[in-house]
Amino acid sequence: MEGTKETIFDRLVYSCQFSKHRGSEEFMPEHLLGLQLSGETHAVYPGGTVVIPENSIVLIKRNQLIRWTKYPAKDGQYKFVSITLDQEVLQKYALENKIEVAGKYAGGQRLFFEADDFLKSYFSSLAPYVNKKKEATPRLADLKIREAIELLLQCNTDFKEILFDFSAPHKIDLEEYMKQNFMFNVPLESFATLTGRSLSGFKRDFSKIFNASPKQWLLQRRLEEAYYLIKYLKQKPTDFYLDLGFENRSHFYDAFKKKYGVTTTEVRQIEE
């Protein structure tokens, strides 16, 4: 049975799956607040890997790369509901409530946290919209976003530094960042934003550092990693080609043969 992903109103999304599903890499330009209703989500992000268990509430900071794999529960269902806390609403809220943030949040990426009863009840209040028993008007949708903001601040005052930091990503070490995140298959525009550059500036700096275009370097770096996994860790391409950023197996096999002149099977058979 096919899974579903529905946008209930413009910032509320409900996802339901009935089999293991590997999602594509995503660039998260806005904060996301979510509840794992059933099953669990395995999330890979630049800070590591985390498992989001059933009944966990997550807060994902904006400007993040993330990859999801969805695992249904024993009853065969995976359910996750999320609401986007976009910059426009947060800026209005900060202005109306005279909120100022002195510095950046120093706690790193925290994917999930211990929520209080009020925040748990908030997600219960979204059930009528998810179950299509009630339709959300634009005004009501805006109020639900604001309610989420209020409850997050009540749950943990440290969230103020996350929610109301409206600064753009600062210019960071491009070489180090790309070496750590080459496996994320996202548009170059996303890499540019996350490293604090315009697209043209990203391409220009990239060429100076790596003496190659981003497309050329990414392909070669992914193939080098694939060779290592096959030759020395004895892994099968079917187990990792997606995790290295290749969109399909035929593309991976063709690119590998072109670079190394041998097939992946022949690599495994080469004697040390």
From TrEMBL:
Residue intervals passing through the bilayer: none
InterPro entries assigned to the protein according to its UniProt record, in alphabetical order: AraC_XylS_family_regulators, ExsA-like_N, Homeodomain-like_sf, HTH-like, HTH_AraC
Top-level taxonomic group: Bacteria
Short name of any one Pfam family annotated for the protein: ExsA_N
UniProt KW keywords: DNA-binding, Transcription, Transcription regulation
GO molecular function terms listed in the Swiss-Prot or TrEMBL record: DNA-binding transcription factor activity; sequence-specific DNA binding
Domain HTH araC/xylS-type residues, every copy: 172-270
Keyword Transcription attached: yes
Methyltransferase listed as a keyword: no
Alphabetized PANTHER family for the sequence: HTH-TYPE TRANSCRIPTIONAL ACTIVATOR RHAS-RELATED
Protein name: AraC family transcriptional regulator
Source species of the chain: Chryseobacterium pennae
